[in-house]
UniProtKB/TrEMBL annotation:
Signal peptide: none annotated. This is Amidase. GO terms for molecular function: catalytic activity. Residues 31-431 form the Amidase domain. It comes from Streptomyces buecherae. InterPro entries: Amidase (IPR000120), Amidase_dom (IPR023631), AS_sf (IPR036928). Residues 137-157 are annotated as: Disordered. It comes from the Bacteria. Transmembrane segments: none annotated.
């Protein structure tokens, strides 16, 4: 527990924003504390890609932010906030390595739209966070802050671990199958995967373009909701507020029973069932609805789409640099090269039909949100795997928004999460309903209660 007590920190984003925008906290002093925290612990966690003068670069970024908005009035939504950026997203002033040995000069590109939006909102980029190679499956070196000999998940491993360890209050990741929801659950933070295409992917190295989705990590739901309004297209702030307005009923929740849920470990399902009872006790209606009896087909067709597109993404790089790729990535590309175009077209049609079925079932059953375990269990021991993404797979395939909130832990103190899934486009409603779910699932084992005072800016 000594390591955990030292390494786990809560830095609620909204509190940091309030202190920075009001002038209570100075951006330059704030990035100094952030750099101190990274220097103190990231040698053990390895959430960030190394850079030669992080402190000097961040001082310059913070000074520029302070000069741009010298007066508190009118300061933007993320004024002075340090953000971790997954190392497949181009950011001016930082190289993109994508967790690979491919020469960085081959991976250059214009700054990503998401980083441009963060910086326009006053954020400073604390650094690039570690990713699985090309955001596929070959793990990076990042360790789980709760137990250093366990995986943090992937592929957005560095972003999840950086938030869990209080190195930054906000980080950006991507999800193709389970690359955000799973690491958020493993690391005991909140992860938000918006609806497909709500956050532009321009300037981001692709994995599988018809599945890739950009999202956010923060210590709590309020943090991801605050940042979502900055990065998502056409954010409907009124819809989020209305979801929890005075007199509004709690959302109707449903557990999708059948072969999909059967993929979770027995102890994780037992823990999830206890959380379902907590939600019922908090006033939620929770139904058990049979869904996805053909889950094996959903799994198989998603795999076809994923692998076919991975191979096409690397069609230019792989012939020249394939010898530098790791075996897991090579295997994924080789699998995709064997997929016939007709099979891919059929899988894409299946994907569209499955998305329609998700929405039709929600409407027919009067469901607002599906709830499920966020992962099959806790973070696996060792760094050879990023864990099993199957609990996230159907929702990524359908392109619907998903959120995970911390939901207890299993021995030896490894976190679990509850995943909440809405219809496509209902991102605002999902984040409006989520605080009540977060409150109901919070227990002593999920609260990250350390001596760190977020309002004091320690980190």
């Amino acid at each position: 527990m000594a390591d955990r007590d030292e390494l786990i920190r809560r830095r609620p984003l909204v509190a940091e924003v309030a202190a920075l925008r009001s002038g209570e906290r100075d951006p330059l002093a704030h990035v100094e504390r952030t750099c101190d925290r990274i220097a103190a612990i990231d040698g053990r966690i390895r959430a960030f890609v190394a850079e030669p003068d992080r402190r000097g670069r961040l001082r310059a970024e913070a000074a520029a932010v302070r000069a741009s908005w010298p007066e508190p009035a009118g300061r933007p939504a993320l004024f002075g906030v340090p953000v971790g950026v997954k190392d497949i997203m181009h950011a001016d002033g930082l190289a993109t390595g994508a967790g690979s040995a491919v020469p960085a000069g081959e991976l250059t590109g214009e700054q990503s739209t998401v980083v441009a939006r963060l910086r326009a909102a006053g954020a400073v980029v604390a650094g690039k966070t570690v990713t699985a190679e090309f955001a596929v499956t070959a793990p990076g070196p990042t360790r789980n802050p709760h137990h250093l000999d366990h995986s943090p998940g992937g592929s957005s491993s560095g972003s999840a671990a950086a938030v869990a360890a209080g190195m930054v209050p906000l980080a950006v990741g991507t999800q193709t199958v389970g690359s955000m929801i799973r690491p958020a659950a493993y690391c005991g933070v909140v992860g938000f995967k918006p609806s497909y295409d709500r956050v532009p992917v321009a300037g981001v190295i692709a994995n599988a373009p018809s599945l890739d989705t950009l999202g956010l990590f923060a210590a709590d739901v309020a943090g991801v909701a605050h940042a979502a309004a900055v990065v998502c297209d056409d954010w409907r702030a009124d819809a989020a507020r209305e979801a929890t307005g005075a007199g509004r009923a709690l959302p109707v929740l449903a557990v999708p029973t059948g072969p999909y849920l059967d993929r979770a470990d027995a102890d994780a399902v037992a823990a999830f069932d206890r959380q379902v009872e907590r939600l019922r006790a908090a006033g939620f209606t929770v139904r058990r609805v049979p869904f996805m009896p053909d889950f094996d087909a959903v799994y198989a067709q998603q795999f076809v789409v994923n692998r076919y597109e991975v191979a096409r993404t690397h069609a230019q790089w792989f012939p020249r640099f394939g010898h530098l790729y790791r075996p897991e990535t090579v295997a994924a590309i080789r699998q995709g090269q064997q997929v016939a175009e007709a099979d891919y077209a059929a899988a894409r049609e299946h994907q569209r039909a499955f998305r329609d079925r998700v929405h039709a079932t929600l409407a027919a059953e009067g469901i607002d949100l599906w709830i499920t375990p966020a992962a099959t269990g806790t973070a696996p021991r060792g760094l050879a795997t990023t864990g099993n993404s199957v609990m996230c797979l159907p929702w990524s395939y359908a392109g619907v928004p998903a959120l995970t909130v911390p939901a207890g832990s299993l021995a030896p103190g490894l976190p679990l999460g509850v995943q909440c899934v809405a219809r496509a486009g209902a991102d605002e409603e999902l984040l409006g309903w989520a605080p009540a779910i977060e409150a109901a699932t919070a227990t002593d084992t999920t609260a990250i209660d350390t001596a760190t005072d977020a309002a004091a800016g320690t980190g």
